[in-house]
TrEMBL record:
Gene3D superfamilies (alphabetical): 3.30.390.30, FAD/NAD(P)-binding domain
Annotated disulfide bonds: C44-C49
Domain FAD/NAD(P)-binding: 8-322
InterPro entries in the cross-refs: FAD/NAD-bd_sf (IPR036188), FAD/NAD-binding_dom (IPR023753), FAD/NAD-linked_Rdtase_dimer_sf (IPR016156), Pyr_nuc-diS_OxRdtase (IPR001100), Pyr_nucl-diS_OxRdtase_dimer (IPR004099), Pyr_OxRdtase_I_AS (IPR012999)
Cofactor(s) this protein requires: FAD
Positions of NAD(+) binding: G178, G179, G180, P181, I182, G183, T184, E185, E201, G267
Residues involved in FAD binding: K53, G117, T141, G142, S143, D308
Listed name of the protein: Dihydrolipoamide dehydrogenase
Keyword Nucleotide-binding set for record: yes
Record's keyword terms, sorted: Disulfide bond, FAD, Flavoprotein, NAD, NADP, Nucleotide-binding, Oxidoreductase, Redox-active center
Domain Pyridine nucleotide-disulphide oxidoreductase dimerisation: 343-451
Length: 476
């Protein structure tokens, strides 16, 4: 027997975007149905942000004995029980899971259908015998790891972020294909836990980040013992003995790498297969995503998109931002538009790299010679000196009048230090607001004040200023 539901909203996908929309809409009075074929919480909870940060935390703890000597301490080397590390990671997932659970959402009044859904027509979705005909739909099906067509990949065992956290034994030698955020984070975490790690990247490490910030991280990865193969092509993979082999080519030279495990971290692809989008009149882009307008509407105006499938930056915080845009449009009929110009990004390595807004190259391409950069090193920060974490810098990009166009930070706590710059970019503020704040001493946050204040250094200590001071002195 087919059950027919006619809610205000049907959300497809129970990841970060879908859960935020469903919880918000239901609590605002909209009758909501949530359809999810897999695990509640999606990639972020189960195979992404949460487990990766838990693994990174374990790796940092394992580093403490190696860092202790800087502070005049000695300690025994840690004994890594990787099965216990696995339990730690999954305990963290389990501690957060109730917030994303079916029980919680049903407690809010959301009808949860745990089944695969597909469109029957532009107004109808079917899922396990349930026909859903809402006023509006929200597609929030997220993304999954992309596996490039490498020769031999179909015959070679490999891991992705969806399977790597199931390991209960530490890899002896982990070969990572992909030097983006996922590859560098996981590569460094396993290195800190005692694995040999090689990262192969066809471009440069973290190619979307400021090269000077990446240089700070690259130096640390080398110090941590990782082997980095940048500007390197993977020509093939194959099983070898009990492990894997990766054939690479760099500068015309072929090389044969062997390892115990292979991790593919070469990008993401959106989850849209099997939804029968054609029946709903929902068009896709050339690269497989959804065609959406600034209000996150698809070509079927009853269907909105949120999160990774909407084509913007693929971050959990963007999914939450999209949820707010969709709710304003779908529930309140307000013409809210998504603006990704002030979306921050953070790579949670040691040191961290964080950025927001335009980098120097992009700013110069748009504004030409009117752009100025303000740089301040962690080495000139007293708190960084006290904690012996002086590697890194901040770089702020401003226009001729001091309006903040962007900022990038490499160093300890960069993900936290980027906060005031997010606000500055979002509100189009001038750098003076941060230069004039009273910063507590000694804090890492002083680097923001010092960098901002350097905008005024040329005029503040100019010959003109000295003449004014001498003139006023003569007047008594």
């Amino acid at each position: 027997m087919t059950e027919t539901l006619t809610p205000d909203l049907c959300v497809i996908g129970a990841g970060s975007a879908g859960l935020a929309v469903a919880a918000g809409a239901q609590q605002m009075g909209a009758d909501t149905v949530l359809v999810e074929r897999g695990k509640m919480g999606g990639d972020c909870l189960n195979t992404g942000c949460v487990p990766s940060k838990a693994l990174l935390a374990a790796g940092k703890a394992a580093q403490l004995d190696r860092l202790a000597a800087k502070y005049g301490l000695t300690t025994d080397a840690p004994q890594v029980d990787f099965a216990a590390v696995h339990r730690h990671v999954h305990d963290v997932i389990a501690s957060i899971a109730p917030h994303d659970s079916v029980a919680r959402f049903e407690g809010l009044g959301v009808r949860v259908v745990q089944a695969h859904g597909a469109f029957e027509d532009p107004r109808t979705l079917t899922a396990d015998g349930v026909r859903i005909r809402p006023r509006r739909f929200v597609l929030a099906t997220g993304s999954t790891a992309a596996v490039p067509p490498i020769p031999g990949i179909d015959k070679t065992p490999y891991l992705t972020n969806e399977t790597v956290f199931d390991l209960t034994e530490r890899p002896d030698h982990l070969i990572v294909i992909g030097g983006g955020p996922i590859g560098t984070e996981l590569g460094q975490a396993f290195a800190h836990l005692g694995s040999r790690v090689s990262i192969v990247e066809m471009a440069s490490l973290l190619p979307r980040d400021d090269p000077d910030m990446v240089a700070v991280l690259r130096a640390q990865l080398h110090a941590d013992g990782l082997a980095l193969y940048e500007s390197t092509q993977v020509t093939g993979v194959s099983p070898e003995g009990n492990g894997v082999a990766v054939d690479i080519a760099r500068d015309g030279q072929a090389q044969h790498l062997t390892g115990s495990h292979l991790l593919i971290a070469a990008g993401r692809k959106v989850n849209l297969d099997g939804l029968n989008l054609e029946a709903a009149g929902i068009a896709r882009t050339a690269n497989g995503g959804l065609q959406v307008d600034a209000r996150l509407r698809t070509t079927n105006r009853r269907v909105f998109a949120a999160g990774d499938v909407a084509g913007g930056p693929q971050f959990t915080h963007v999914a939450g931002y999209h949820a707010g845009i969709v709710i304003k449009n779908a529930l309140f009929r307000l013409p809210a538009k998504a603006d990704h110009g002030s979306v921050p990004q953070v790579t949670y390595t040691t040191p961290e790299i964080a950025s927001v807004g335009l980098g120097e190259a992009a700013a110069r391409a748009r504004y030409g010679d009117k752009v100025r950069t303000l740089t301040w090193p962690f080495a000139d920060n007293d708190r960084a000196r006290a904690e012996r974490t002086t590697e890194g810098m901040i770089r702020v990009v401003v226009d001729a009048k001091g309006r903040v166009l962007g900022a990038a930070i490499a160093g300890a706590h960069a993900g936290e230090l980027i906060y005031p710059w997010i606000l500055a970019v979002q509100r189009k503020e001038k750098v003076g607001a941060i230069a004039q704040m009273i910063a507590p001493y000694p804090t890492f946050g002083e680097i923001s004040k010092r960098a901002a204040g350097s905008f005024y250094t040329p005029s503040l200590f100019s010959e003109r200023t000295r003449k004014i001071v001498r003139l006023l002195a003569k007047l008594g």
